[in-house]
Prior knowledge:
This protein has helices at 12-28, 86-97, 106-146, and strands at 2-4, 37-39, 47-50, 58-59, 77-80. It folds into 2 domains: 2-97, no CATH class; 103-154. 13% of the residues are buried. The chain is elongated, with a radius of gyration of 25 Å. It is built from 3 helices and 5 strands, in the order βαββββαα. With 154 residues, the protein is mainly alpha-helical. The two termini are 50 Å apart. Helix 1 (12-28) crosses helix 2. Residues 6-100 form the Ribosomal protein/NADH dehydrogenase domain.
Amino acid sequence: MEFHRKLNGGHRGARHFWREMLPRIKYRNPTVPIAISRHQDAAGPSLLHIYTSTAPSKTTTPADAPTLTPDTPAPTHTIDIRRKHESEILDLLIEHTGATPIPATEQELEEQAEIAEFKERSEKDRVEVRDKLMRVRREEELLRLARGGATNTA
Length: 154
């Protein structure tokens, strides 16, 4: 996989795929080697190269597109991932490799539900703390004004 170090130039989806989805893929497929090449050129390529030993060669990018990958055997599939959302990239990867998604186990579903519940509670707590802090600040301001103090102009 190769893409620009920053989000500029349509590399956002590639970067998000690398940060969010690739670790999950690697966790489920520990023996699959994964190489990442991040370059400095925002106008440079954003490509996902797939190397397999049995599938016929299928390229979705122009053959003359320069790549920054080292000299290796030609990839079985090369997918142009510029300006694509990370879920689109995952769909293309599944399509080109013939992979089958593994359904979540009961334990994973329970963990996801716990995380969602925790996030909901934490958001509620965040709002309560912010409201309390704003009330305290407002009361302090009113007390200061009642004592004849000047308002903050900073």
